[in-house]
Structures
1.
Amino acid sequence: MNMIRTILVLVPALAALAAGPALAGDIVGKVKYAGTPPVPAKIQVTKDQAVCGKAEHVDESLIVGADKGLKNVVVDVADPKDGKKMPPAAKKPEIDQNGCKFIPHVQIVPAGQEVDIINDDGILHNIHTFPKVNTPFNKAQPKFKKVMPGVFEKPDVVQIKCDVHSWMQGWVVVAGHPYYALTDASGNFKISDVPAGAYTLEFWQERLGKQTKPITVPATGSVTADLEYAAK
Ligand SMILES: [Cu+2]
């Protein structure tokens, strides 16, 4: 009797030991822009000056920071094998129209999670999406409508525009799995807890396009994957 009890206790404990910690590593790196960083072009505000003209508008499609680091590059594992879905973000994602800009300019949202489309300006905006695989939407957001729901069901790269203010541009990258990151102002990124193995790492920048790089993620620690975009 005692022996059976001991076995019943021991078996699950041994199974847990055998499984051990997950074999996963991090992918870290820095994306750079080769050549002289361009000075972002100023944008002429041609409408709703009282609201849109409060702050200066510059072209945000290529932002080069310290040490040639490239901001807003989306980095992701092109071929994950564990079938995991990107979990919903703890804080509901927002596409904020503020000062007649989309804030943030580029963001990664989990596929299927509802996002808040916010009008912080108290004037009419009209959000218009240009997806590749999702259903496009084109919706007026009058000044009294502070928040509208939006959802991007499938992995995609979606350009967003405003039909009222032609200079307003932004991007929503819809992620189907968790292995995505966006470079910060210095061009740095980190994708955490990727199961060990060989993959293709994908880089996307709105103006400079896509590049790929083979990568092997270790069972523990991290692998570095730096990248440089040629000047354009
Ligand atoms: Cu607008």
Note: Helices lie at 2-19, 49-52.
2.
Amino acid sequence: MRNARKTFLPFALPSISEEAIDEVTQVLRSGWITSGPKVKQFEQEFGKFIGASQAIAVNSATAGLHLALEAIGFDQNSAAITTSVTFTATAEVVCYFGGEPILTDVDPLYNNMDSRSLELSIKKFCYKKNNKLYSKKTKKLVRAVIPVHIAGATCDLESISAIAKKYGLYVIEDAAHAFPAIHKEQFIGTNGDFTVFSFYATKGITTGEGGMVTTPHSQFADRIRRTRLHGINKESFDRPSWYYEVTDAGYKYNMTDISAALGLVQLKEANGFWNRRREIANQYIQEFQNIPGLQLPSDFEWGSHSWHLFRIELDPSLAKVGRDTLCVELKDRNIGSSLHFIPIFEHSFYRKQFDYNREDYPNACKMYDRCLSLPLFAGMTNDDVSDVIRSVKEILY
Ligand SMILES: Cc1ncc(COP(=O)(O)O)c(C=O)c1O
């Protein structure tokens, strides 16, 4: 194919500096490779970065979401309201308990849960009794709302929190895409009852696999510190003697010092990564703005996008080609792309288990037909960016 790159450009790659490799190597040589001083330091510095009082490191965001639900006493008689446009992890943790994920549609621009979609789902799928919400389908008590800051665009947290407060729901923010992101002059991670970050390989910063939970509630923070490691009431690295007590049936969700060492260096580099992603996103926006049928993401006036992903939408009635053709033609030019996300209700497990109805989610369905994520990561060279711009223009003009 004419104009194809010589090497494949994935839609995301981690940026690992020599300093990070050196720090991880030091931990490997130190004799203490699992949860220890590096994890503690990473928690403190992460908390300081975003301004959160309590930060608890775990081995994935999925684990963090699970532990947040566990901390509030979520059980098989509970339901949580979350968005239909997310990765399976967000809904799957509700199923770990035998609970019900009640889905919302999304706003048409950012594809986030907003007050309109949340209220609509409450009206359609819930009933109220004594100021509490119950699922019409399963009669389970709704305990939490789990908004997701898709791609790093922050949700309307004030409206969501106001609705949550009205019905006594905890707000557990899935911020897997939102480090760092700013909402109303505050970093994401300082608003809800819990915020859960991901440090998966392609995220804003990475620890290989990993996650962080922030919460202003010290009793929940204490519980998560225990439940992430077998329900043991003392962290292994400052156990003075052989004694420890198991207070709960916990999990094996602790982060290792190997991961935390990488995380500490990534944290120092986070602003640089963020600036580079912002620069690339702005360049795409400038270059693509007149392409017919192409809807672009944008920064927003209420804060700053993390630019974890650059998600575009193609209107099939106006664009030269549809989303699937764009994806294939980019691949022919050696450029990767991806879709964020196949809506939860499209997956066979959720469809069979909860009998969702596509008609309830028109914006999510529209997104699913039209959306594609273009390459965006801090390590992209100027040539990589130019290749994407040239290819997208070639295909869509
Ligand atoms: C929106 C969302 N939530 C949760 C997760 C789970 O993150 P982790 O892989 O750290 O468990 C992901 C992972 O990609 C995600 O995209």
Note: The two ends are 17 Å apart (CA to CA).
